[in-house]
Amino acid sequence: MTRRPIKRHCGGSRTRPFPFSSFGRTSALVASTRRQSSPLKQPRNNVLESPGQGYTKKALKEKNIQQESSSEEDDEETVQADFAFFDPKPDDFHGVKILLQSFLDNKQWDLSGFVDLILGQTTVGTVIKIEDAEDDTPFSVVTALNLGRYKDHRCITEIKDFLLKVSQKDVTCDLRVLLEESAHYVGLLVSQRVVNLPPQLLPPLYDALFDEVSWATEDEVR
């Protein structure tokens, strides 16, 4: 008697009989569709293990790539530069103006005239630049302006008005005395720098400013 062949299912999913209720038929149809549309799992790549180390070659390779990438990023982020102090000069106008853009909270005022005062005062003031660089842009500026000497300049008047406007009411009277009656004894400190300037430069920068103010005062007394 001839034996009948046995039918085999090769990867296909069996179709289950649908229940009688509409909800049951819908649930069974969704479940059947999900089973048929699920992706096949791809076989894993064979990875050879390094004997006695516990690491795979693939893991070691990825680790080396990460280390090289981290090393390259460190090299890109590290910038070597030699900073030096210079006296302000007319060529620094645009660089100093950019540094002082937010000096009065982005208020529209005579900023150009203010920069001219800073650059025109040759006895007091310092700018920081990169030494022997093609780009002569200043990274910091610090100076002190006597409010009495420059009281008639429009930019100084606007600064005084701004300070009186933003100050608290309980100090407005005292501040007005300093800005007007005692203006000859008051120096306006101007200090601005880029965010990533090395902080180690600030102490000698301010020391130089106080020395310049002292020397300028002595010269005026003489």
From TrEMBL:
Gene Ontology terms: cellular component: nucleus
Biased composition (Polar residues): 23-48
Domain of life: Eukaryota
Region (Disordered): 1-77
Segments passing through the bilayer: none
Comp. bias (Basic residues): 1-11
Cross-referenced InterPro entries: BCP1_family
Family named by the database record: Belongs to the BCP1 family.
Annotated protein name in UniProt: Protein BCCIP homolog
